[in-house]
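Structure tokens please, single chain.
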Amino acid sequence: MPLPAPLLLAKALRLLDRGEVTRAEGTLRDALAAGDADTGGVTRVVVLCCLGDLMARQGRRAEAVEMLRLCLDTPVPGDLDDVCADDRARARHLLAGLS
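Here you go.
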């Protein structure tokens, strides 16, 4: 049974902590593919921000810009805006640095 997106995100963050960047990116992509119906878009926002940040750090500008724009464009319910505020602020900051 495939893991849900929030668990895949948690796994990816642990992999990043351990420096396993390639595995972490694959796991983040798996989280994106798993969907986010259960968290109202919040997990998608976080995953896209993480991917964009990772790609920016690797010098993959075009991919980073795409992920960060998707992060900012992902709708979330109004009562969850505050949960995504830090990730969206990070995405805006990273985009500004990539322009």
